[in-house]
Write a structure and sequence with these properties.
Organism: Phaseolus vulgaris (Kidney bean)
CATH topology of one domain: Jelly Rolls
Keywords: Apoplast, Disulfide bond, Glycoprotein, Manganese, Metal-binding, Receptor, Secreted, Signal
Strand content: 25-35%
Helix content: 10-25%
CATH superfamily of one domain: Jelly Rolls
Number of helices: 4
Distance between the termini: 79 Å
Strand order of the largest sheet: 1-2-9-4-7
Protein name: Germin-like protein
Largest sheet: 5 strands, antiparallel
Subcellular location: Secreted, Extracellular space, Apoplast
CATH architecture of one domain: Sandwich
Order of helices and strands: HEEEEEEEEEEHHH
Number of strands: 10
Shape: globular
Family: Belongs to the germin family.
Structural class: alpha+beta
Length: 209
């Protein structure tokens, strides 16, 4: 028993000075990779690297969707690098809408801060799960599934989203189809939409082809 205690104490003493990497503040001057950005040297890290004020102010919602998303992903908030965590602010004017979109790299947790938001997602079995959320209520959106948020009751709304990745990615379905160079004949063929309607939507969103 005595020898076991001595061995345990020796082991603890030998590992007590081992280096533990507590964080990896992103060096945004370097290239992003599968494992994230390289780390800023710890000696150059300050408290400000772990604080982000970019979600404190409302964004301008004067646009076609009457809404705006302010991200706090690794590109804006280097302190989340490697932590599998990021956030965003959603500002929605009356009847504002965040169109159908996906986050290929993360699950999302939406927290309503003001107003009411009709939110929902479509499962891979084509079942729609939707709910009108009020202040303080949360909803989850599984990774990769199409989902949306709409300001309800003709009033503005604010929500905050938390993601399970420092870089969740974003692809908006309408923009992918009608703000890109995806050709009109192919869109019509793959979506069964009328070509004239496709052209009209492309003219609105700035697409070509």
């Amino acid at each position: 028993m005595f020898l076991q205690i001595v061995f345990l104490l020796s082991f603890l003493l030998s590992t007590s000075h081992a280096t533990v990497q507590d964080f990896c503040v992103a060096d945004l001057k370097s290239a992003d990779g599968p494992a994230g950005f390289p780390c800023v040297p710890p000696a150059k890290v300050t408290s400000d690297d772990f604080v982000f004020a970019g979600l404190s102010e409302a964004a301008n919602v004067t646009n076609i969707i009457n809404a705006a998303v302010s991200p706090a992903f690794v590109g804006q908030f280097p302190g989340v690098n490697g932590l599998d965590l990021s956030a965003a602010r959603l500002d929605l004017g009356p009847a504002g809408v965040i169109p159908l979109h996906t986050h290929p790299g993360a699950n999302e947790l939406l927290i309503v801060n003001q107003g009411h938001i009709l939110a929902g997602f479509i499962s891979s079995s084509n079942v729609v799960y939707q709910k009108v959320l009020k202040r303080g209520e949360l909803m989850v959106f599984p990774q990769g599934l199409l989902h949306f948020q709409i300001a309800a009751h003709k009033r503005k709304a604010i929500a905050f989203a938390v993601f399970s990745s420092a870089n969740p990615g974003l692809q908006i379905l309408d923009f992918a189809l009608f703000a890109s160079n995806f050709s009109t004949p192919l869109i019509a063929q793959t979506t069964f939409l009328d070509p004239d309607l496709v052209k009209k939507l492309k003219s609105v969103l700035g697409g070509s082809g």
